[in-house]
Specification:
By secondary structure, this protein is α+β, with helices and mostly antiparallel strands. Helix content is about 30%, strand content about 45%. The strands form three sheets. It has a six-stranded mixed β-sheet with strand order 8-4-10-11-2-12, with no helix packed on it. It starts with a helix and ends with a helix.
Length: about 220
């Protein structure tokens, strides 16, 4: 009787330890196995790591006296997903201007229909893994006081031109937002967009030579 009881006790303990070991092994695999679909789906829902939206240029300086619309392009890329479909593309001012001392204003930001390869005839394109599409956003800089350009006042406005792409992945609509920095400056210089062209030294030399040649003719007419 004792031997039978001892045998049953050993079998029972072995079975119990086996269950504990199996449960422990499963919990370890859940924590360390990156292929678990539940974890991946949750991460994609919260943070769109499967796609990217990149502005070009990401940061630019625009002269306050610019007389035409300027642009910034955005590239939307399907980095990891088997397939994504663009639902809509929009542009707006993400952040109001700061340090805008003389009321330089970015009036508007809009997607240029003719430069939108992410939507064809109003229908969003479908991108496979590694594929991308691009679109351009135009914005207009206006100075509330035109005298600022002449008076060379020290005013700087910093704006964020934003782009929003709504896309469908695995049956769910997701959104990614990205911004590009636009700095409004009253000073023209290197890498400042919209500045009037500066005459080359050779052009100035030709102009000076022409004026010197005209001087005798003007002098004769005055003496007459």
């Amino acid at each position: 009787m004792r031997r039978r009881f001892a045998g049953l006790l050993i079998v029972g303990l072995s079975f119990l330890f086996g269950i504990v070991a199996l449960t422990k092994a499963d919990s370890i695999s859940l924590l360390h196995n990156p292929s678990i679909s539940l974890v991946s789906n949750l991460s994609f829902s919260l943070v769109p790591t499967s796609v990217s939206l990149v502005p070009n240029p990401a940061d630019q300086t625009v002269w306050e006296g610019v007389t035409k619309a300027e642009t910034v392009s955005f590239t939307f890329t399907n980095v990891l997903a088997p397939s994504v479909t663009v639902v809509s593309v929009n542009a707006n001012l993400l952040v109001p201007g700061t340090e805008d001392m003389e009321n330089d204003v970015v009036v508007s930001a809009m997607v240029i229909p003719s430069a939108n390869a992410c939507e064809v005839n109003g229908v969003g394109v479908t991108l496979g893994t590694g594929s991308s599409c691009s679109f351009s956003v135009s914005f207009i800089v206006a100075d509330a006081d035109p005298r600022d350009v002449r008076n060379k006042k020290d005013d700087v406005g910093i704006w964020t031109i934003g782009a929003t792409v709504v896309y469908k992945e695995a049956g769910a609509n997701l959104t990614i937002i990205q911004g590009a920095t636009v700095r409004v400056s009253d000073t023209c210089g290197r890498n400042v967009v919209g500045c009037p062209p500066t005459p080359e030294p050779s052009t100035l030399l030709l102009l000076g030579t022409g004026l010197v040649g005209l001087a005798p003719m003007i002098r004769r007419k005055l003496h007459r």
